[in-house]
Task: structure prediction
Amino acid sequence: MGTEILLSGVVYTARDAAHQRLVHALDSGKKLPFDIAGQTLYYAGPSPARPGRIIGSAGPTTSQRMDSYTPRLLAAGLRAMIGKGARSQEVKEAIKRYKAVYLVTIGGAGALLAGAIRRAEVIAYEDLGAEAVWRLEIESFPAIVANDIYGGDLFEQGKRKYRLDRNEGGRQMECVFCQIIAGKISSETVYQDEKTVAFRDIHPRAPTHLLIVPRKHIPTLAHVSEADSSIVAHMVNVANQLARSEGIAEKGYRVVINCGQEGGQLVPHLHMHLLGGRQLTGLLG
Ligand code: AMP
Ligand code: ZN
Result:
């Protein structure tokens, strides 16, 4: 309990409406649309992917809404759940009884979670729209064990260390790039200096796709103050230097900073994309 893990493999999404149908199917002796034995449910309703993406945002919903259905699904073989917030006493007891585990994600890290999804397809209850059941293939999806087979409960322990809410201290804790900078989430770091860190994009859109980020948590380009503007110039210098070391400087490359929602920014920590190694077209190539 309290262990931070990186999950890889298959999970199925299900929210309230899907839970209701799953339990209804079980109660009426029908087959479930997928074999739930040994499986993991992720309490999320992914939004549709924007062009070029595997999935839209895919953050967790509050698990409490699933509590009344969960013991039934655990009895049917469900072994892991991923969500947000504490569970009911009945669910905690069932977790222990069926030797299952309940994981929580890092609150507000929807973009990080989406970045860990390799494949996504709707496999059941398509008519439920955002609440349909998706089959997701995930890789290095970060989560924290909240309830384990021994009855351990992260929420009862109230470990301040794992701030799961959005209160003070929560922001840096939930920022993906701050966590990469702090070494709490692994990344393939290719460069660092006192002001910036650069690492490979987890979902590369070109043979070379690096992200250059300031160590300082600046949410977007729009938040760069006059006093901080030298950081952006420094990021450009780092990009040029990395383009050379990556061997893409001569043929050409592209740097991109997405700003805010309509600018297509998913991770709210200023970052510059460095793309190259193929002929880039369109917006992000
Ligand atoms: P943007 O859409 O401009 O906010 O870009 C965010 C980028 O961060 C995307 O290209 C993601 O693939 C990338 N990304 C998200 N999480 C990680 C991670 N843990 N390690 C490396 N890159 C990531
Ligand atoms: Zn940050």
